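Final report, closing paragraph on structural work. Over the funding period we assembled a curated collection of sequence-structure pairs, and we close with a single example.
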Amino acid sequence: MKAGLLPDVAPIRAPPAGVKGIGRIFGMLAFAYPFGMLLSNYGLIMLASEGTRMMPSNPVVFLLGMLALSGVSQFVAPIAGYFSDRCKHPLGRRRPFFFCSTLVAVPMIVLQWWGSMNGGNIQGTHGLDFSAGTPAEVTFDWVYVAAFFISMMAFNIQQVNLSGIMADLVHPSQTGASNGILGVLMLSGSLSGFAIYKVFVSFYSEPANAKYIAHCAPCHMKAANGTSVCPNMEQRTSTCAVHDLYLVFTATLALFSICTLFSAQEKQLVAELPPWSWADIRTTFTLSRTHHSDFYWVTVSRTFYYCGLSTQAFLQYYFRDACIWTDSKLFDAKLVTWNKSPHISNYAQMTVNICILAQVAAACLAYPAGVLSDKIGRKPVIYTAFFGMAVTYALLAFITELEYVIVLAGIWGAFNGCFTSVDYAIAIDTIPDKAQTARFLGVWGISSFIGTTIGPIVGGSLILFFGGVISPSPTPGHYGVLGYRFLLCMGGVWNLIGAFFITKVRGNPGKPKPNPGLN
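Its predicted structure, as stored:
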């Protein structure tokens, strides 16, 4: 058996998909709403906040570690996809796995809330030191990290089975439109999470509500070196808002997962299959550049998209260190002066405001771009998205005045919406064997792990070297602007590489073929 090929087995066929109404497609893909809410807020708000709590003088290291854990968790997806493709449960192939992973994910988010509410600081005077906090605080910190990792595995199992539902139950003529709906749901979920965070921050910022901050243990802790975990009101309100987000995520995930379970009406698989084997499982992690050519290059291209996207993991620090305050009327930006330059003191809230703008722009274009790709094919939309994002990153590297950053963020969001609209569609178009959709989409999903691992490692190294060694900031705990310039330029390079690999995909997937009967 050649590497990257599955052994010869009896065909695994799902019942043919019929044309679905828009409402049914929204119901089947409902899980994408909390999934988008969770991933965006983890990457841009929550992990950065937890990093400030646990490692206040070097949160980038904590962020890199947690992103690495998130990436490793995605290796469960191909295995889950393999068994899902073979599942003969009366509820269908996908729903049993989706249901069980939901039962794991929901309590794990609650445990994260519990660990974050009671955890302490693990950074001593000389760096990482788990003895810096009390034994109870360190235990809660470990609870948080473990629950995060387990929940990420559960999310990945849910997501790979949602992809299988989309491939199995959506008619091929609706692939682009359904991918657009998927993009709208994910972007709307992300947008809602940011908006809810803003509401919570506004609530805790009111003097009359300061009494509620007294119930937040990290807001009153001291690190071993005597510094406060949350030294100012901005960080305290942000920390309390993050705690409340965990509870919102718990309820949202449970509700929308139930919607997907009831809307995705699968039929039981009827096929005689050989027993599973470890040899088969090993092949779930491989692709053949020869036998799976188009899908292989789509997966490689997606890896570089995520390398570029992971640039945003450092967005809070960009607004803190590099972005120049110009006007308090712009998204309620608050002024703080250090290093003789005007900067933004409420950088966490500013990150949320910018992300809301970008997600609104993306959501507005996701569905139209998906429908357009059903007519002109996926490639033109992907090329437009990649080149647009690359140019925007390059401009953000050198134009740091807040009013221009706001405009560029909206433009970037629009191009990202174009990519999101065809991300799943081109993968489904090029899957080598539709009978093993979840297995292949599991490998495809690992591309995001590779991208979100390589991207932050390279990006964080650029910040630490160019912004911490070559041209450091005179302010302790901050990084020089040069580091962010290299970070953002690298983000553009990642996107250009992704566009290059799409050129290796044969033809133009998704474009309707001419009907010879009309000639």
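DSSP finds 17 helices and four strands in the chain. Confidence is low (pLDDT under 50) at residues 1-16, 122-131, 220-229. We thank the funder for supporting this effort.
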